[in-house]
Amino acid sequence: MTDIRSDASTASGNYPAAPEQLLARAQAIEALLKERGALGDDTVARIVAAYESDIGPLHGARVVARAWVDPAFRQRLLTDATAACGELGIGGLMGEHLVALADEDDAHHVIVCTLCSCYPWAVLGIPPGWYKSPEYRARVVAEPRAVLAEFGLTLPASTEVRVMDTSADVRYFVLPRRPADTEDLDEAALAALVTRDCLIGVALPKSPR
User: Fold this and answer.
1) Across residues 164-178, what is the average pLDDT?
2) pLDDT digits over 90-113, tens only?
3) Active site includes 113?
């Protein structure tokens, strides 16, 4: 069985079989836009850097850490995630219609977009290749525990796995449970425990140990 995390560009369907085809197409479009003055020399690099470092999962980690230390913020986040994220200056493109899914002792959430690859860029950054692959989109719905195991996450049999289908109208992200033994950590240290995969639901926050 192919590992779900392998390069999604090898998948069938709407995705080209060869990664070099995607690269050549992107380079040709970028060159044409630069030639016509629509892009500066560093525009693409700045946008990618922003979504990887500034707009990306670091924002999501901040949201989770704030919810862990501030019960009132957690409640606002679960009531209206778009507004709560806005309190931290997080929003904009792909940051509309946000919904936070809180994990509990007996329930774990995983997000997927079965129709395409809708994704809350504002809090998760650029979607990984495996998230966009037809294999992940199909298998995580049919056999979520098997997919999670491939990511190294094995949950107790008593834990319900809830697979949530995100879309342009509802952009889900996961609010994981706070790890044990983190009572002495400040908000910044807590945020460092949260990864993009935690926000998708295929991993748990890192242990401070």
Assistant:
1) 93
2) 876 555 789 999 999 999 999 999
3) yes
Q: Is 117 a catalytic residue?
A: yes
Q: Considering the domain 55-200 in this protein, what is its CATH number? A: 3.90.330.10
Catalytic residue among 85, 117, 133, 198: 117
**pLDDT at site 93:** 59
Write the pLDDT tens digit of every residue in 194-205.
999 999 999 999
What are the residues facing 174 on neighbouring strands?
101
Asked if 126 contacts 154 with a C-beta cutoff of 8 angstroms, the reply is no
User: How are beta strands 107-112 and 160-165 bridged, if at all?
Assistant: parallel
Read off the pTM. Answer: 0.76
116 catalytic, yes or no?
yes
How is the chain split into domains, by residue range? 55-200
